[in-house]
Design brief:
It is a single chain. The chain is α+β, with helices and mostly antiparallel strands. It has helices spanning 4-19, 90-100, 108-112, and strands at 26-27, 44-52, 61-65, 70-86, 115-117, 125-126, 129-131, 134-136, 138-154, 160-166, 171-177. Helices cover 18% and strands 41% of the residues. Strand 3 (61-65) and strand 4 form a beta hairpin.
């Protein structure tokens, strides 16, 4: 099962393949201080991965295996990749992503890891923004996925215990072992 960082990195790879934006200009997170240092003639993409709930993500199936005393939990997790693109080609790039993300050869690695695109990708949303006294196209696009999840856990129990009972009359040792009454 892919973790959050691995999913983000795979989405970056897919975006780079679809748009041709240089890898160094596709960023997983925003910088924490100052204004972004972006150039008006280059394209940029910021990727932020979040999770969402729906009626499909709520039920969790639990199975108990009596032979090895283990439990498994199975369910579905909703993943949303929030993309924010900047640059002269930002709207065209989001439109390409919106259409091309449905190409199964691009999402093959995600699908191998139980992550599936929800095909109803909404239209990109354009919001111009002023950065360093320069106007940029800022375009938002959200990609939604479902991920199959499964966690296994062992039930921890006591195999044996030594108990010492001390009373006024006499001292007694009692040993309890698994399977004995």
């Amino acid at each position: 099962m892919m973790n959050k960082l691995q999913i983000e990195q795979e989405i970056v790879r897919i975006i780079q393949k679809i748009t041709g934006i240089e890898n160094k200009n596709i960023r997983i997170s925003y910088q924490t201080t100052g204004m972004p240092s972006i150039k008006v003639d280059l394209d940029y993409c910021f990727v932020s991965l979040n999770f969402f709930d729906t009626e499909y993500t709520q039920p969790i199936e639990t199975e108990f295996n009596a032979q090895d005393e283990s439990e498994s939990y199975k369910g579905t997790r909703g993943i949303i990749a929030n993309l924010v693109l900047y640059g002269l080609n930002s709207f065209e790039n989001t439109s390409k992503i919106r259409v091309m993300i449905k190409d199964t050869s691009l999402t093959k690695n995600l699908r191998k890891n139980g992550i599936y695109l929800l095909c109803n990708v909404s239209e990109p949303r354009r919001v111009p923004i002023s950065i360093n006294q320069q106007w940029y196209d800022q375009v938002y696009l959200d990609l939604r996925f479902y991920q199959k999840i499964m966690y296994n856990t062992d039930r921890h129990y006591i195999d044996s215990a030594e108990i010492k009972v001390i009373s006024d009359h006499k001292e007694q040792d009692i040993n309890i072992k698994q399977g004995e009454n």
